[in-house]
Amino acid sequence: MDKALYVAMTGARATLQAQGTVSHNLANADTAGFKAALANTEAFQVRGQGHASRTAAMHIDQGFDARAGAQRITGNPLDVSLQADRWLAVQAPDGGEAYTRAGNLSLTPNGQLVTAGGRPLLDQEGNPIALPPHQALEIGQDGTISIVPLGEGADTMAIIGRLKVVEAAPDRLARGLDGLMRNTDPQQPLAQAPGAVMATGALEQSNVDAAGALVQMIQLQRQFEMQVKVIQRGDDNAQAANSLLRLNG
């Protein structure tokens, strides 16, 4: 009986964690460049003294869905849509380097180029990008940033920097609690991606399937209810067994 209660309890815990993952995906269904988190459950044998007969259910983080989201044309010169396996380098809250595919960029009042979440974009040297006063801005397909200085003609457009865009396969990245991706092997820095790395005036949408996620949430809820019922029945049976033992005693 104890074994049944334990297995049901670990299963319910894993189901709750999976619900949290699906909820996180649903909350980011409209976040540009968001990659859906993947989760699964697998059996885990509990080690210890005695016969190895107890197996728990464990929630497994399987990374993220690397498929591209739908493209939306915006015409905004600060919107960029990255090619496959290309990631914008940004400054993380701890000052380190992190990566994102959220291409809805903006300028702060002091001219710093940031993501929608306020994280500074980095140039090829790993420094935050700040633009001087200008009357026109253009981001090239290779990540170069060109401006027409304030008060100058269009023929004075000049390149002032280049966005750091790295090439990284999904297995080279892991998502942190802040939603930004990090290099899983810091000993091997991610290199600048060559050639055309993005399209401008467009945004990659979230790749979350909202309808599928809602169905998954319903399935997980029903699964959790069944596991709770198993726990309740196991507790009822244990109480009945204890009553019989007291009567026989």
Automatic annotation (TrEMBL):
It is found in: Bacterial flagellum basal body. Residues 85-146 form the Flagellar hook protein FlgE/F/G-like D1 domain. GO terms for biological process: bacterial-type flagellum-dependent swarming motility. Keywords: Bacterial flagellum, Cell projection, Cilium, Flagellum. The basal body constitutes a major portion of the flagellar organelle and consists of five rings (E,L,P,S, and M) mounted on a central rod. The rod consists of about 26 subunits of FlgG in the distal portion, and FlgB, FlgC and FlgF are thought to build up the proximal portion of the rod with about 6 subunits each. This is Flagellar basal-body rod protein FlgF. Residues 5-35 form the Flagellar basal body rod protein N-terminal domain. The keyword Nuclease does not apply. It comes from Pseudoxanthomonas suwonensis. InterPro entries: Flag_bb_rod_N, Flagellar_FlgE/F/G, Flg_bb/hook_C_dom, FlgE/F/G-like, LlgE_F_G-like_D1. Residues 200-244 form the Flagellar basal-body/hook protein C-terminal domain. It holds the Pfam family LlgE_F_G_D1. One of its GO terms (cellular component) is bacterial-type flagellum basal body, rod. The keyword Phosphoprotein does not apply. PANTHER family: FLAGELLAR BASAL-BODY ROD PROTEIN FLGF (PTHR30435:SF18), FLAGELLAR PROTEIN (PTHR30435). Belongs to the flagella basal body rod proteins family.
